Amino acid sequence: MKIEQIYTGCLAHAAYYIENNGEAAVFDPLREVHPYIDRAKEDNATIKYVFETHFHADFVSGHLDLSKKTGAEIVFGPSAKPGYPATIAEDGQVFEIGEYKIKVIHTPGHTMESTTYLLIDDQGKEHGIITGDTLFIGDVGRPDLAQHVISELTEEKLAGHLYDSLRNKIMPLSDDLIVYPNHGAGSACGKMMSTETTDTLGHQKKVNYALREDMTKEEFIDALLTGLTAPPGYFPQNVLMNIKGYDSLDEVMDRAIQPLLPDAFEVVATETDALMLDTRNAEDFTKGFIPNSINIGLEGSFAQWVGEMIPDVKQKILLIIYPGKEKEAITRLSRVGYDNTIGYLDMGFDAWKDAKKEFETSKRITANEFEKSYIKEKPLVFDIRKKSEYDSEHIIDAVNIPLNEINKHLAKFPKDKSFVLYCAGGYRSMIASSILKQRGWNQFVDVIGGFAEIAKTNVPKSEYICPTTML
C-alpha cells in the first residue's frame, strides 16, 4: 500500500499521505500545506480527502487551507462539530481513494470525536491503522485535554472511554496491522512515547503498558492518570482554533512579513504591546540583545517552547531573527496558533548594533568554571529541567523549577545575591535567563552545555544516574 509518513521532528508530529490511481488523501496535515500539494503533483494525483483524527491541541491543522486550495473534502469522525463545512462520518463508514478503502472506527477517549482510520489496500487486505492520539507507540493519548474546553468531560470519564475504545475497537484487530500514530517521543500529548514512529499492532499488544490484556478499567485509569503533568497553556486555544477555524497561512504571512528598520522597530515595540522574540541561538543572544526581548532559539523545539512560555496565542510578536529565516519563524509560530507577528527587525540584530541602539548582554560560564565556583563558594543553583530529568540525576542541593513553571515561582529567585541556572544542554537555560533579565534580575549566570557538561565534572550529584534528553 502506498502510504508515506511525513514527520516533523520539532513538533514530534506525523502527517500521512496516501495515493492510488490518481486520487490522494492527507491525514492530520500541518498548517503549511504546500508540501502535501507538491507531493500530490509528483503523483499527478488529486487530493480527494483531508482526514482529521480529532480536534488537535498541540498544533493548528492545515485542513482548512488544504481544502480551500485543492477542493478536498474535510472528514471528521462521529460527534465532531466543526464551525465550517465538513463531512461528519459515521462509525464504520468507508471512503475510497482509488482502489484503496478507508474505514472509520470511532475511538473516543483522547477526545470524544477521536477516530482511527483502518487502511485497506487494493487487494482488500487490511494494511494498517492511522490512530491519531488514540494509540501511540509505547503509549496512548492523554485524556485530560477536552475538559479544558468542555468542563464535564473529566479526565476520568475520558480515560474510561479510551479503555473501552482500545479493548473493543483496536485490540480485536489483526496483529500484523501497522500502527501509524500522530506523534512520537517529545510530544506533550502522551507521557512515555517511543522514539519509533510506527510498529505492528501485535508488538504493541505485547509491550505497550496500556494494552495489557488482563488490565481492569480501574487499573488502566490509574496508570493513565498517574504522573500526568499539566498540559501546555496553548493547548485549549489550539483546540478552539481547530474547531472554529482560523486565518489562512497566506494572510498570516502577509501580515507578518513587515521588515522594520531599527528606528521603526523601536517605535512599534514602544507603542504596541508586542513581545520582542529573539530567535537566534543562545551563544549569539548572550553577546548582545535588545532590552526586554526574550530568547527562544529557532534551532530547538521552538514552537513547543513558544507555546509553553507565551500564554496567549493572540499575543502580538516582533521578531529578531537571522536574515533569511523570517518565513521559517513565522510558519513555525503559526503551527501552534501564534498568528499575530506584526514585523521583524530588518537585517537582524547587527542592524540594531550598527544603529548604535542600546543593548544588553547575559553572562554564561563553562562547566569547568562552574565546578571551580561550586567548590569554592557553593552558590545557589537552580535546575530548570523537567522534574523527571531532575529526579533521574541532579546537582546536590540544586532547586528544581522547571522552565515552564518559572513565571509562577519568580519569588524564589533572589535579587540580592548571585545564583546559577542550568538545564540539559543550554537551550532552556537561555530562555530562562532572558525571562529573568526582562523581569529585572541581573546577578546570575547560566552554564554552557548544561547538565550534559556538568556531568563530566566533579560537582557532587545525586547517586541515581539515568540518561537525560538534551534540549
UniProtKB/TrEMBL annotation:
> From what superkingdom does this record's organism come?
Bacteria
Q: Which InterPro entries match?
A: Metallo-B-lactamas, Mito_Persulfide_Diox, POD-like_MBL-fold, Rhodanese-like_dom, Rhodanese-like_dom_sf, RibonucZ/Hydroxyglut_hydro
* Gene Ontology molecular-function annotations: metal ion binding; sulfur dioxygenase activity
Give residue ranges for domain Rhodanese. 270-361, 375-463
Q: Which Pfam families is this protein grouped with?
A: Lactamase_B, Rhodanese
Keywords annotated in UniProt: Metal-binding
One biological process term in Gene Ontology: glutathione metabolic process
Name of the protein in question = Beta-lactamase
